[in-house]
Amino acid sequence: MKIYGRTKANKSQLNELCETVVSAEPSALRELASFLYRCADSIEDMGDEWEYENFESSEFVSPEFVVFNPDVVSD
Fold first, then answer.
1. Which phi and psi (to 5°) does residue 12 adopt?
2. Would residue 16 count as lying in a domain?
3. Is the pLDDT confidence value at 52 over 70?
4. Which one, of 43, 22, 44, lies nearest residue 33 by Cα?
5. Which of 8, 32, 34, 70 has the most other CB atoms within 10 Å of its CB?
């Protein structure tokens, strides 16, 4: 697994991160966990046809959270 991110100062530069910190209420964490499970199921079900999905939530506006299929997107 690789985790990438952008900074507010340089939104155009995508960097591999060495650490990720999430601070959220339990309901938001469950919503994020459910999103990750759906992405994993979609990758298994659709293979290379599934490229990525953006996390959408009424609780989160920023930061943006995106999951990419590692078999479709390369470094």
1. -85, -15
2. yes
3. yes
4. 22
5. 32
| Pair 51, 72: CB distance under 8 Å | yes
- Asked if residue 53 lies in contact with residue 67, where contact means CB atoms within 8 angstroms, the answer is yes
What is the structure's pLDDT at 42?
A: 95
Query: Residue 75 falls within a domain, yes or no?
Result: no
DSSP, collapsed to helix, strand or coil, labels residue 66 as: strand
54 forms beta bridges with 66
- pTM equals 0.77
Residue-number span of the structural domain to which 14 is assigned: 4-68
**Residue 73 domain flag:** no
CA distances from 39 to 9, 32, 59 (A): 29, 11, 19
Per-residue model confidence (pLDDT) at position 60: 63
